[in-house]
Task: structure prediction
Amino acid sequence: MHKAHEVTIESVPDAAISEQTDAVIRVTRACICGSDLWPYNDLPQTPGGRPMGHEAIGFVEDVGGEVQSIRRGQLVIMPFAYSDGTCTYCRNQLQTSCIQGGFFGSPEVGGAQAEALRIPFADGTLYPISAEVDDSLMPALLTLSDVMGTGHHAALTARVAKGGSVAVIGDGAVGLLGVLSAKQMAALKKAKGAQFDRLFLAGMVQHHKGALTMVKDLFDTAGAGQDAELFNFASEVDSGQRAEIRIMQTMLGQKPEEEKQ
Result:
């Protein structure tokens, strides 16, 4: 991408091992992320262009001499950030803060909207899929490269627990998968005797000043009280659009606004 609204396909040097901790993958599936829309709309003129793409699935084509856990021929999930897997942050499962890490879709490491890509710190970055996977499952597995992991992390951070109430602000991909993650976590807890009482989905305008008040009012209406957990997701709709609360209203047993008119 050379500037806003200018996307080109270009020939670039083949991906190759640079450090002995690298791997090279042949990309078989890749995504266009919602965050790619920001530079698409406002990237200034960029000499040399900016490589795009930071989430992919592919097969390992080559590995450096110090790579231990990743092998040629493996099918792997490539997350949006690379990390060494050994620093303090990585050991505490905060890989996006890795001291030596960074993010794909940059001139330094390249982007996943490509035929192949060099992966720094292959052992700490790539997630191999050990079982044979049906090709029809690839789109679902691709969510693990970004949005599913983000939604799951939000559910963990929100400490979804017995009797909890969850509000999700923003019903884009991350918000929806945050809901799915919360449901899955509740199901696992329920197997041990716990109960997950309420799950609310709110799709609201990004940075809407009244969003928190609206969530509070809706929870109070449902009797959820003041202890509701809150996932704070950025919505993937334009900030000029009105708040979309149809799903939450339906789940609360209220008639959506358009049906009232």
